[in-house]
Each structure stands twice: as structure tokens, then as C-alpha cells.
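Feature request, filed as a ticket because there's no other form

It would be nice if the structure record came with a short human-readable summary line next to the C-alpha cells. Right now we just get the raw output. Example of a typical job, pasted below so the devs can see what we mean:
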Amino acid sequence: MGSVSALELAHDVYRAGETVQAYTNGSFVSSQISLLDNNSQKVVISPLLNAYRSGETLLYFDLDGSLANGTYTLIAGEESVAFTVVQESPAFRVRPALVVLDPSATNFKITLTPAVGSGTVLISSSDAAVVPRKSSLDVSSAKDLYMDYAYTKIHADSVLLLTYGERNYSVRVIYPQSEGVASIPENVSVPSNESVLQLPALVFLASGISETLAPNQSKNGEVHVQNTLDAALLNLSYSLTGNLASIVELNRSSLAVLEGGNISVLGLVLNAERNISAGTYSGTIVLSNADYSAALPVDIIVAAEKSAQSESKPLNFSVSYSSLPTKQESSGIGVYIVGIILVALLLFLISLIALRLREKPEIKFKEYIEATKRR
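Raw output as currently delivered:
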């Protein structure tokens, strides 16, 4: 077999336990592949090959979770490339390590398996036509991440970005009709809510909650979440992660239906009893069902000293996605008030008509008496 003519790593740094991805346009067999450590000693790996396009192949393998920090060299035939391994948690293994879109399908899945530790993975896509069903996924055991796509709206390769902690891990999505591999920037930054090219199915219309309280202070407010799909989402439920349950109270725990395009309002109170212990309270407010989810980060610091006044204040939020439609979930109270007004108006009209009908015979009788007197 011919030797590798080019070898490109998806990342320069990998965490011990992660899946390494290398791209090549050469031809070779697995016996030509090896990994050497700092001391030029061979490291045991099980390399796999995926010829995803004519003349283009993905070489991938999982690193051992106990691999020591250092510089490692991947050798494939006569080509080699170095990368750094660091011991950091969490670290996840990815299957498949590369996705080739099927023109006849509308979705695909990626399985994430924790190799070191566990944690929450944030998901985003560089192509608006490839949309994650969940914007975040808690991975403590093997979990499937589903992506929906409209093949007719895709015109080039794209990248999925998986973010956990300070780590940004990319997975290439291959458009079979494209002539080249999508380029991946050397330093991929986490996209902010304003810069993501597509919207997940569920979107909190705030970037997060960050508040500082005294132990005897309380704050209250509302957050808004939108269904960006055309179809309704059913059987949604709210939950709190981290240690938020001890300081955050929600005014609802579930949402039976959220119509397509509609916005739901969630009321919340921080430190309702005004007697919380000093400390840091962090986590997320999650709205989810079996298929979709959205998470709103929350960080609350409770100071050690009490305030001179025990008070309740409103919360302030920095709104993201400001260009989203403002279609609001219909209010039952508003409909009830409108109904009362209409009924009152109808009763008034009926009374007016009845009064007019009663007046006419009386007027005719008076006219008859007057005519009789004249005679």
C-alpha cells in the first residue's frame, strides 16, 4: 500500500480518554499506524479507518484515560504528526468520529461515552440546516445525541462543536457532494447565544442569571422560553441542577403543550424564605421532554452579612435572541376578562331593546287619550 501523503489532526491537544481524529488523502493499512510517547515508546491503540470520500480517509482511535501528560507522535506510513495529551476531566469518546450525511435521511445520532469523569456537554452547529435536538446533554453514561437536518438546504461540509468545561471538541459533518473537507479553525471559541447560526428547538430568551444576595434578601422575576419549531412540543417539564433547589423556587414544574413559535413564561423566586446560608449556588434551569431540552445557567452568591433591610427585589435579565418573534403564550386570565366584557355588552343591548319595545305601546295609548279629549 502507498504511504500517507498528508496527515492533519482535528485538534492539537486531546484529553486522555478522548477520540483522536486524523485526516489523510493517502492510502495505508492499520499495521502502518503507531503512536509513540515522549520516550519514543509505543502506546497501545486500536486505529480505525473510514474512507468517507474518494481519496480522503479518517483515521481515529481512543486514547487511554490514564495516559500521562506529554507530547505524543502519531505515525502513519512515512508521515507523522505530534499532539499534546493532558489529564483533564471530563473526557468523552465519540462514535462516529465523523458523520457522512445520507441524502435520503433527515437525522443522525452521535454517541458520547464518558472516559474520564462526567459532565454537561453543550452542542452547536456551524450549519443552520443541521440542528441539535438538545442544546445540552448531561453525560454520566453513554448517551445518544440526535441531530436533525434538511439535506436540500446543505451545500458544504460543516462542524459540530461539543463544549464541556473549557474544552471545545469538533466533529466534522460531511456533505457527500462537496469537493473538499470543511476547514476547522485552529482555536475554536465557544459560540455565544448571539453568534450561533441556528436555533435549537427550545431557547431561553436570556443568557443566564447571575445575582448576589444577602441571606435575608429575596429576588423574583420571570424568564421566557420559546419553541422555535413550527410544531407543538408536548409533555415538557422543568428541573433544577446543581444545588439550586435550596434557593430557587419555580411557579410551575411542567408544561403540557408549547405551541410552535410560542413563548412560555416561567416565574421564579430566589431565597423566598429570606434565611438562606451564605455560599455559592450554581446550576441550570432545564426545560425538557424526551426529545428536546434547553438549559439556563444560574449563579447566585449569598453574602455572609445580612442586609439592613429584609426585602424582595425584581430580577434583571440580559435578553439574547432579540430578533426572535414575540408571539406570547395566550393568557387564560385575559380571555376570561374579554369574555366578561362581551357578556356585559350583550346584556346591555338586550335591556336597551326591551326598553324600546316597552315604550312604543305606552306612547300609542297616550296619543289615543289625547285624541279622545279633543273630540
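Something like this underneath would help us a lot:
Helices lie at 332-374.
The domain at 1-88 is CATH 2.60.40.1930 (Immunoglobulin-like).
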